[in-house]
Design a protein that fits this description.
single chain; 331 residues; alpha/beta; Rossmann fold; 2 domains; 5-stranded parallel beta sheet; two-stranded antiparallel sheet; 14 helices; globular
Length: 331
């Protein structure tokens, strides 16, 4: 996938840090976590050893039986057919939420084998639900990856001149038409695709808005299927109703989230857990109304008034059932 993500620069800083710890790259489903780690590994290491706990559940046994890092690595090398060398191999533990014991083992990688470079990918929701026996607090570094930004969209579409121009701006002033017009058209297209990598790639490669629609619908479907993973199944309908109410909530003139717009007679105490679940899964942002533009910003948040925004503008557009007009191929 010919993408350029800004997270790659942060991963390089992690690699070169003298205080490097095992890394957990977190984020909602399908924002490109696994791709980012593999791409970083191919650029910065001699080789990459990737182990996916969802595809190969048998790998979990290597972490259940022992906490000895040498033995774990030996088993992984023999099972996966990889050579793992300190410093020159990036070890990727993918879908780590499927193996709580592997999460716990990161502590021992940090304490007993810091010479190995270990990076993990996992969904925010999965890591929260996995409940490892002993989460390695203070022994891991976490980075959260979101959807592609507008800048990353421009880079993917080959508009490096526009990226360079945006990076040169340091004051607020009207943009020359030579830059404003193409940026305006690109931004409109970004509102169509959003920042989910598969959606952006569909546009970059095919220039097909119908394909974008299909990709975003599939992502929304996978998210909604995840709602059933809530440990308390009675909250499943509440999560679904909150999720589906987001477009109508944002289209109203009201200054805060209205629970009665979700369901007649609904009260905050009945739905706040569902909202928190969606937030923990990285699917929404809960933004409080601010009463004054002073620092620190959080000190002036009105905790009784908030709005909910989706994590990606393309998914919001698709969930809102907004129709995409045919777009010119030169956009």
């Amino acid at each position: 996938m010919p993408m350029e993500r800004q997270i790659l620069s942060r991963l390089k800083i992690w690699k070169e840090s003298s205080h490097r710890k095992p890394l957990i790259l977190k984020g909602a489903r399908q924002v490109g976590k696994t791709w980012a780690l593999k791409e970083f590994g191919s650029r910065s290491y001699e080789n990459v050893a990737c182990f996916n706990f969802e595809e190969h559940s048998e790998y979990k046994q290597f972490f259940e039986k022992t906490k000895d890092i040498d033995r774990i690595l030996q088993n992984l090398m023999m099972a996966g057919g990889y050579q793992i060398n300190p410093g020159s191999t990036l070890v990727i533990l993918d879908e780590i939420q499927e193996c709580p014991d592997a999460l716990t083992a990161l502590k021992y990688f940090c304490e007993n084998a810091p010479e190995y470079h270990v990076a993990c990918a996992g969904s925010l929701l999965g890591i929260a639900l996995s409940k490892p026996v002993s989460f390695p607090v203070g022994k891991v570094e976490s980075i959260e990856l979101g959807p592609m930004t507008f800048t990353e969209f421009l880079m993917a579409d080959g508009d490096n001149n526009l990226v360079e121009y945006l990076g040169s701006l340091d004051i607020l002033e009207p943009l020359p038409d030579a830059f404003f017009n193409p940026l305006y058209e690109k931004l409109k297209m970004y509102f169509v695709t959003g920042g989910m990598p598969e959606s952006v790639y569909s546009w970059i490669k095919e220039r097909d808005t119908d394909l974008i629609q299909s990709v975003l619908s599939n992502i929304l479907g996978s998210y909604e299927r995840d709602f059933a993973k809530h440990p308390d199944l009675k909250d499943f309908p509440k999560i679904s109703m909150i999720w589906k109410s987001i477009p109508s909530q944002l289209s109203r003139e009201n200054k805060k989230f209205i629970y009665k717009a979700v369901k007649e007679g609904a009260r905050a105490r009945e739905y706040e857990d569902a909202i928190q679940w969606l937030s923990d899964a990285g699917l929404i942002y809960k933004i409080y109304r601010n009463t004054a533009p002073w620092l620190p910003i959080m000190a002036y948040d009105d905790l009784s008034a908030f709005k909910i925004y989706m994590g990606d503008v393309g998914l919001l557009r698709r969930l809102s059932l907004l129709v995409v007009r045919s777009c010119h191929r030169n956009i």
